[in-house]
Amino acid sequence: MRFDIVTLFPDCFTSVLSSGLIGKALAKQIAQVNLVNPRDFTTDKHRKVDDEPYGGGVGMLMKPEPIFAAVESLPVLSRREVILMSPQGQTINQPLLRELASNYDQLVVICGHYEGVDERVLHLVTREISLGDFILTGGEIPAMALINGVVRLLPGTVGKVESLTLESFEEGLLDYPQYTRPANFRGWKVPDVLLSGNHAEIAKWRLQQQIKRTRDRRPDLLKAWEEAKGGGDKKKESRGAEEQTGRGD
Question: What predicted TM-score, i.e. pTM, was given to this entire model?
């Protein structure tokens, strides 16, 4: 997987791309990240990348010429997506990350700044993506999140592939509580079932905890999970989880 990141602040990515699993994945060439500064493609002596918006308004907009030149300087792989990180875009979620990791060989990511980019930049873009319903000073942090989320799904990044399927959002529910040694820390004990060695009961407990946690924290996800799994049967499971945890009506 090749990432081409169009950013005015390439130094922001240095630490993120050299740390942890992502750094190891890049070292093993599971993925490649190329940082491109649109300022390098300006043609005026001041290397100007922004200007005032037509019609007036607060702040400055990124000019289209340097962005177009930066993107057009890149090689074009057959399975390519050109992404603008924008609060107006599709919100990042796990299905989106899986789609990008599975279906594309090249992601060109444009990081906006100031008050955004000239609207004509959208003629380059095949998809707009957002980190959430809030505003940051630029697209660099959302781009880092996107890179991290996609690279960890690429084969070879995570040692135990099954761990990718046993976590929040992969099955439509939040993750279950997890514990490690010691079994008793400051009076907080690991649930007995996890020490029992009974794998069937452990699996049952974990599903109950997933349902409970999702109901408490993200009822919208629980509703979608129940609908996707057939509604009635899963509502019975959900009710069973309530009874098991003393949360029944």
Answer: 0.84
